[in-house]
Specification:
The protein has 267 residues and is α/β, with parallel strands linked by helices. The protein is built from twelve helices and eight strands. The longest helix is centred in the C-terminal third of the chain and has 16 residues.
Length: 267
């Protein structure tokens, strides 16, 4: 059974910035409004990730987006163990991860519940045409392909999936108890940037996502708090039954770029 989440708890802000100072400035600006942050390869390569994670977990949940590959089991297990020791809530597994990789990741948790292991089903920067080109099958076979690879990951012990676009609904229906985290979230009318399969916050939640990951629309907004608050309001409207993934309730791009109480860290 999944825990109940308030609208603000469903938002994960991507700290895709070069330094921990840059990341902490965003966190400070969103204090009391956002409880969940994603850190990834850019901060890892800058050498900022370790100390930043330790600072963030004091008051926030943290999603470590490393897309762990099909490396040797010892390496995978040790990386997950470090993430668990630090207090990370989520960590990603690449779609190259095999049953052995996932087993090693589970072993790294040593019986602890976190970090949850999220299997990247297919990058949001790729679409059905890319699938056909890479795998040599028809575009119409994309959904069956996703179902097959995610079934193997779930059977191996993955806790949930990173999934974008309309395929959120496909995997939510197939795995109602799995965590669904959706990147590539964009306000209606906003640039998709390098994402090919996108959703508005309302669409993603309406299709069954538990969390939405939002980076540039918040990070680049002149008023980041206002941008986040509009996403919160949009999610709340969908959950209240006043919006749907197809009725245009997503706010326009201009709305996103134009003090809330502190919330408990979700676990």
């Amino acid at each position: 059974m999944k825990p109940h989440l308030e609208p603000r708890e469903r938002i994960i802000v991507a700290l895709d910035v070069p330094t921990s100072d840059d990341a902490l400035r965003i966190v400070a600006e969103l204090k009391g409004l956002v409880s969940f942050y994603k850190v990834g390869l850019e901060l890892l390569m800058s050498g900022s990730m370790g100390n930043l994670l330790r600072a963030l977990v004091q008051e926030h949940s943290v999603f470590v987006d490393l897309k762990l590959p099909n490396d040797i089991p010892e390496t995978v297990s040790r990386v997950v163990a470090i993430a668990s020791d630090i207090g990370a809530t989520f960590i990603t597994l690449s779609n190259s991860a095999t049953r052995g990789t996932i087993a090693a990741a589970i072993a790294g948790r040593a019986g602890r519940p976190d970090p949850k292991l999220l299997y990247v089903s297919f990058l949001s920067s790729l679409d059905r045409a890319d699938f056909a080109q890479q795998y040599g099958g028809p575009e119409a076979g994309f959904e069956s392909f996703l179902e097959e690879r995610t079934a193997k990951a779930k059977d191996a012990g993955a806790d949930g999936f990173i999934v974008s676009g309309q395929e959120i609904g496909l995997l939510h229906k197939k795995y109602p108890n799995a965590l669904i985290v959706s990147p590539g979230i964009r306000p209606a009318g906003a640039s998709k940037d390098d994402h090919k399969r996108t959703c508005t916050p309302a669409e993603a939640i309406g299709l069954g996502a538990d969390y939405v990951v939002i980076g540039r629309p918040i990070r680049n907004a002149p008023d980041k708090r206002a941008a986040v608050q509009r996403v919160i309001d949009e999610i709340a409207e969908v959950e209240a039954g006043n919006g749907s993934p197809s009725n245009g309730h997503a706010l326009g791009a201009s709305s996103y770029i134009s003090g809330a109480p502190t919330i408990a860290k979700p676990r």
